[in-house]
Backbone:
């Protein structure tokens, strides 16, 4: 047998938003990758030596506690595993891992820093934890969740808002209605549920945005959609939902499940991200993570289920009484009479479609109207927002 484990200690910072795929045609924003291997670097070689540069990299990015090398642990076999990603033998079904992707809506990157979260902390110790994640633009629930399951930026997967809208008919449908509108989701991008099913796997979606319609005629194997007046914060229901998902894995033989919780987003919107109520719901999230990991153990799934906990965006306090509030109707030379269609007062961004011939007038009126108002024509959107 060869030398003990090869360690791949640290991932690059640019991998922190793993599901944000570069736009296909926008070459400039495609990320590059440098994979460096130090042969025979055992998992704990940085623990009896001062390694300030490796430590700094772990702080800026993420770091695995250890890596289990492929068998057999020799240099060429293990390095070829790294560049071929040939994992489990194709015909050996029994050793295939399952994946549970859990999303807690609106869990800002630092919500675990002013609340005791022993279960999330234990999970970070047993696995890896990113310090933060940069969401896709725009930072709304459905667009960002669809980025997570398609690997595409919002402008490429086409789910550009929580609300279905039509600029000609002026129709706007709320989030819950939009969840069931087939053409809003099935617009050419295949989410991971369908890709997995085409490879012979079985998948499930529990309340996850986009999991309730068919894609190119194909539905997710098992899916649940929340009711229209769903109470997002019922902890008893959360546990029942986890029990159902465990049965999906053990009794129904599913390989991939996405599980969505509408908190702490809901409470954050209602009481504010700095409120005591938000801290309490984060404690509930943490208890739920503990219950979930216990359930995984009791269901006998611990050795072949990967658990991934993500969120879609953060949140910030908006003071509607602030002296520097941006109020479009108070801007001189701006009039809603010049606007054909608008989506304002929903999330961190607004959309305006000027009437025919009014684009320049509207743009000139708004572009320097307020130091905190940033206005872009569609074709001149900053590259940093993809
Ligand atoms: Zn959200």
Residues:
């Amino acid at each position: 047998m060869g030398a003990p484990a090869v360690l791949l200690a640290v991932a690059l910072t640019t991998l922190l938003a793993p599901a944000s795929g570069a736009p296909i045609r926008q070459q400039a924003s495609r990320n590059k990758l440098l994979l460096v291997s130090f042969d025979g670097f055992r998992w704990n070689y940085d623990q009896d030596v001062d390694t300030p540069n490796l430590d700094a990299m772990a702080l800026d990015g993420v770091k695995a506690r250890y890596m289990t090398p492929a068998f057999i642990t020799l240099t060429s076999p293990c390095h070829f595993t790294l560049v071929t990603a040939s994992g489990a033998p194709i015909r050996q079904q029994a050793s295939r891992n399952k994946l549970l992707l859990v999303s807690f809506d609106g869990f800002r990157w630092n919500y675990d820093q002013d609340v005791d979260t022993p279960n999330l902390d234990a999970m970070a110790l047993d696995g890896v934890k990113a310090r933060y994640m940069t969401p896709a633009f725009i930072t709304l629930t459905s667009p960002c969740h669809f980025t997570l399951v398609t690997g595409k930026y919002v402008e490429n997967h086409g789910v550009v808002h929580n609300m279905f809208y039509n600029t000609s008919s002026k129709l706007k449908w709320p989030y819950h209605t939009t969840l069931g509108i087939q053409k809003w989701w099935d617009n050419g991008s295949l989410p991971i549920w369908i890709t997995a099913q085409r490879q012979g796997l079985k998948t499930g979606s529990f309340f996850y945005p986009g999991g309730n319609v068919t894609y190119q005629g194909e539905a997710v194997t098992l899916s649940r959609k929340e009711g229209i007046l769903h109470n997002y914060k019922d902890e008893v229901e959360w546990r029942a939902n986890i029990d159902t998902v465990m049965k999906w894995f053990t009794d129904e033989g599913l390989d991939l499940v996405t599980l969505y919780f509408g908190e702490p987003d809901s409470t954050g919107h209602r009481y504010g991200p700095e409120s005591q109520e938000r801290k309490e719901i984060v404690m509930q999230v943490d208890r739920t993570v503990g219950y979930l990991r216990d359930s995984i153990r009791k269901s006998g799934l611990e050795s072949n289920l990967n658990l991934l906990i993500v969120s879609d965006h953060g949140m910030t306090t908006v003071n509607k009484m602030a002296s520097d509030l941006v109020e479009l109707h108070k801007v001189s030379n701006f009039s809603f009479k010049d606007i054909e269609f608008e989506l304002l007062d929903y999330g961190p961004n607004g959309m305006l479609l000027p009437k025919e011939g009014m684009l320049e007038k509207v743009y000139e009126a708004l572009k320097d109207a307020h130091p905190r108002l940033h206005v872009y024509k569609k074709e001149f959107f900053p590259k940093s927002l993809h």
